[in-house]
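Question: what's this shape?

___
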Amino acid sequence: MCGIAGFSGDLGLDLLTRMNGKISHRGPDGSGVCHLPENGIGLAHRRLSIIDLSPSGNQPMWDVTKRAAIVFNGEIYNYRELHRELEADGFEFKSSSDTEVLLNLYLRDGEEMLSKLNGMFAFAIWDAPRNRLFLARDGVGVKPLYYAETPKGFLFASELKSLLEEPTVGRFLDPDSVFYHLIYLWCPAPNTMLQSVKKLEPGHAMFVKQGRLQKSWRFYQLPHDLQPPIQSVSEALDQVTGGLREAVRRQLVADVSVGAFLSGGLDSSLVVAMVKELVPDAKLQCFTIGFRDQAFAREGHTEDLPYAQRVAAHLKVDLHTVTVGSEMIQLLEQML
């Protein structure tokens, strides 16, 4: 989990630094800002290193020709294939990171790059020759991206609280979003709890120029029909199994140790089992939550720990337990 923030408009370095400070918990491995006052552009990043742990992977990152800069939160699972393709087309790289792959892919394909990405992402690219920002969020919205339009300019960030560092961002609650949150425990994009702040919808992208939203569009929609249609249960099982195995395989690529959340339920147990199948000797570290106060269970929360322990023992993986109790309420303000 990294964090990004930035703006386009009549806004300053002090604001950019404060916005980045609000998301410091998202990236313990590095922090960077890039302020271009002559263009009215600010980019900020908090880094959690996964691919290319060297300083070459630090952000904000410029391409070698200094035509574009990027801040990026996420992972591109097919970045190695794209890297080879771009190198064959003559693009230069100064790192082995997936971030630089995104940057060069944009320089080659523009916004059409989005159709080539397999991964989870939220990013902003400053296109210097066109004097505009390009922002995008992955197709199912794994990575968050909030934005606000104000008289002073356009602001974006991984978390809403970064935007509140700018006083011209309104603080009025959105009644519809409050209703959605009370009923569903979340509010669907583009709404947020504040009228002045929006979420970039999953599978959407936008151009921002001179502090104003220029264009927004959808680039991805989950397909609702299969061609040719599936003819049998066994065929469906083969396709689901193959697709899941390939997704797990792609997501094992990292320059750090890989871990997994394990609740003992069907989904997490299946993912961990496939990791063990794909990499039998992997020293997989798994994590689960246990409740100190059994009142949680009485209020309808299922205790995951016994089931996670059974699965961990069966698959021979290390299980780390984080035990929580009512004292967590004291940390609510800090978590928010």
In short: DSSP finds ten helices and 15 strands in the chain. The first strand starts at residue 3 and ends at 9. The chain has two domains: 3-218, 233-335. The two ends are 17 Å apart (CA to CA).
